[in-house]
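Amino Acid Chain and Its Fold in Token Form
===========================================
Purpose: to set a sequence beside its fold so the mapping can be learned.
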Amino acid sequence: MRLNKNISQEELAEQCGLSRITISRMESGKAINLLTMVQVMRALGKLELLNYLNEEPEISPLQVMEERSKYRKKASPSK
């Protein structure tokens, strides 16, 4: 993302308030903390990527069947 925006590591580090070494370590796959990641994503204008971490869980068909089975069923008419 940094290269696509034609930003140097120094420029990105300055925008994030981080050191160039931190940016370099992150780009080489070293571990970083979440705050650092958010700072970099904000500087790159990519905070919307974090929305994928907050997906609403879908209810499985099995859960729907289990919920329905809890309700009382009507008595069938006698013959």
In short: The chain has a mean pLDDT of 87. The helical segments are 9-16, 20-27, 34-44, 61-70. Residues 28 and 73 are 61 Å apart (CA to CA). The first helix runs from residue 9 to 16.
